[in-house]
Amino acid sequence: MKESESGRAALFVETFFGESHKSFAEGWPARSRHDWELISLPGDRWKWRMRTAGLALGGRLARLSSHPEVVVVSGLVDLAHLRHFSGERGALPHLVYFHENQFSYPRPVGQALERGFAVAHLATLMAADAVAWNSVSHREAMLAGLRSFLEDLPEPVPEGVEERTRAHGSILMPGIDFDGFPAPRARPVGVPPVIVWNHRWEEDKRPSCFARLLSRIDAAGRDFRLILLGTTQQVRPKPLEEIEARFAAKILHVGTARTRGEYIEHLRRADIAVSTADQENFGYAVLESMAAGAVTLMPRRLSYPEIVPESLHGVLLYDSQRDLLARILQFLDDPRKIDELRPIVMQRAREHDWAHRVDALDAWVDEGAVVHARKG
Questions:
Q1: Distances in Å between the alpha carbon of 161 and those of 167, 239, 270?
Q2: Could you tell me the CA-to-CA distances from 97 to 148, 171, 172, 259, 368 in Å, in that order?
């Protein structure tokens, strides 16, 4: 790492180098005026990252031959441990970026918040010089979960954590790399139209709702084709198996794309995209489907009203499963509506290009360093 003429020597610590975390950890430094060095761990076993990454990586920070001025870490680390075990570098300004959090992450019915993760987040908030979230809805959900957790703690309870966090907190949406995506323009609608799913096949994205939606569309007598993307865990999700069994003749592709280029090519074939999520702190998948030309329908909650322009709320945001079904049936009955909307949603998605995000993130690094200096 060398000191930049126009920025700071900065260190990025990403303990889960995969999926959206990887995109962020690569996309920001590549466009930043700061000069970055990256320390990362593979994008798996996130629970162990929360428990032990701070212990393990603290020593690596202490032994660095470079001289960072500021450290940015993702929320999947216990920052208190990291700072403690990084020696003199623990005195540097440390900023935390939360892609997600365990306080508000949906859990199965009857499953309690794992207290070890809650304590790790609490320690991170107390140890950070500044924090940032990828949406307002994410911040509010996390702080509501924090309040609930603190109310259940026996004495003594840390005081002023939420107030301090809000005072040193920012909302900073990530950017998206739209290289390789098609230019915003009209193109023919599929005959029949193509519906795409490009989310993880996990419960927080509610794939079972998507499977029921397809059954209702089919029961209404409408024809369609399917592209089924998104990652899966080791156990094959039941909703995916049900969709494959019932709609085998309609499926154009099923499975995770092998490359970014292949992923974009699949999205380019889609006319309609759907989110049925119960948890979404930003929305990479919906913005990518929009940028590729799919008219993308999302619930009117979570982060979606923040990332979709207000002028499109009435078109893209639905209020209920019945509303979602009605909107899709309208598009299938009159594909000209897709023709009209496609270039508009493609263009509006590009408002989240890295070119529109990097300056605010860079300024956050500067501000965090200034706040740290004042405290010293």
A1: 10, 41, 45
A2: 22, 10, 9, 27, 12
> What span, in angstroms and rounded, lies between the C-alpha atoms of 63 and 244?
51
- Give percent helix, percent strand, percent coil of the chain, each to the nearest 5: 50, 15, 35
Alpha-carbon torsion (130, 98, 85, 66), positive or negative: negative
| Helices (runs of H) and strands (runs of E) counted in the chain | 15, 12
**DSSP code, position 353:** B
Written as six digits, the tokens of 307 are: 């990332």
Mean pLDDT for back-to-back runs of 10 residues, the chain (376 residues): 68 93 96 96 90 91 94 96 95 96 87 91 96 98 96 93 96 97 95 97 94 98 97 83 97 95 97 97 97 98 97 97 98 97 98 98 90 66
Tell me, what's the pLDDT at 110?
A: 79
Pairing of strands 130-133, 94-98: parallel
CA–CA distance from 10 to each of 1, 24, 28, 66, 88 (Å)?
8, 15, 12, 10, 16
Tokens of 123: 């320690």
Where do the domains of the chain lie, and which CATH numbers do they carry? Answer: 9-175+354-375 (3.40.50.2000), 194-352 (3.40.50.2000)
- In sequence order, the 6+-apart residues with CB closer than 8 A to the CB of 68 are 1, 9, 10, 11, 37, 89, 92
Query: Strand runs (DSSP E) across the chain, as ranges?
Result: 9-17, 35-42, 70-74, 94-98, 130-133, 169-171, 194-197, 225-228, 251-254, 272-274, 295-299, 317-318
> Which residues are 274's β-sheet partners?
297
φ, ψ at 96 (rounded to 5°): -120, 135
**Which pLDDT does position 6 carry in this prediction?**
75
* 317-318 and 70-74 strand pairing: unpaired
Give the tens place of pLDDT for each residue, 241-259.
999 999 999 999 999 999 9
Q: Is 12 helix (H, G, I), strand (E, B) or coil?
A: strand
Mind giving me the DSSP string for 188-245?
PPPSS-EEEE-S-SSGGG-HHHHHHHHHHHHHTT---EEEE-----SSPPHHHHHHHH
Tally of residues, the chain? 376
